[in-house]
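Internal tracking record. Fields below are filled automatically when a chain is submitted to the structure queue. Please do not edit lines marked as system-generated. If the sequence contains nonstandard residues, flag them in the REMARKS field before resubmitting.
Queue: standard
Priority: normal
Entity type: single polypeptide chain
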Amino acid sequence: MKKLLIILHDLSAGGAEKMMARLAGALVDAGNDVTLLMLTGGGVNAAHLDPRVKKVELRSTRSSRAVPALARFLRANRFDAQLAALTHVNVVAIAAAVLSGTLSRLHVSERNAFSHDKHVNPDFMVRVAYLVAPLLYRLIPNPVICVSRGVAQDLVDSTIARRQDVTIADNPVLDNDFREKNPGLPSHRWLQEKSSAVIVAVGRLAPQKGFDTLITAFAALSDRSVRLIIFGEGALRNRLLNQARTMGVADRVDLPGYTHDPLAEVAAADCFVLSSRFEGSPNALVEALSTGTPVVATRCPHGPQDILIGGLVAPLVAVDDPVALTHAIALQLSTPRDLQRHSRLDAAARFMNASAVQTYLTAMLGSPSS
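SYSTEM-GENERATED OUTPUT FOLLOWS
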């Protein structure tokens, strides 16, 4: 049994936070003693954390001020391996590991396309972290764990990081028995009592997710009975609702907010759409595949091309191309639902907990059984 630590900002509704919570549970399943530490604390995903995972909250007012407290914790609690996630947390973890003498055991991870993600958060300290991180990645003893080949290549191409400074581990998105599990019941009224086809998308209401393009593509569908539900919270809510009103589809578009069971909603839908402008390894796409529901995705950097095997599993369209997106959605809605269902399930299987956790154990400990 190895003693492992995961370091996060908090357990908010983001994809990285959800995956780290899942990874913590999967590492426990693999026979390890796991602690998940939050620099601040709280978040909706805290409720889903495996009770066997030890939870620590430093309650710092912001991540950058957590270095002294984290250094004290690392010095007092020796772990076989430490894993940090997200760029600004990585920088804090590196500083604390240096102060505590545990740098050799620290592993950091990048969850998104670095060249795109560095422009998203305007916070000054986060911007500083993105400037400093590539230099630190050259200096730390262990390679940066990236969630896809595309994220790893982007980090090498867009920063001073070298090929030997990166490695890859898959996200633990799905339960090992996902094929045998029946989905829960959807909460949305359009999915509970379907009178027409329903398209579903899931993600933060942010420019990265391309929901403006999705609404434009949706408005161009010839079938005026089709409905669109976008589950998620974010700053663009009013803008997207105004766009739907302007395009005359407000009565067929709904933004109901965060959903606690996206699999249930997607499983009941007729098509899932990933309209992102960039990703790391889109967990929502994997979850959608696991339900067997037909999907459409943009060929965004990075992840969808790898997950969908270059378009063999499901259609891939260019980023910000609403015409192509309309055609792809219409094609999926007019195709028998079960066509290529097994291909979608097989593509999702790579991201089962048991498979993905071994890639992390290899990256952190040298071999899955170390």
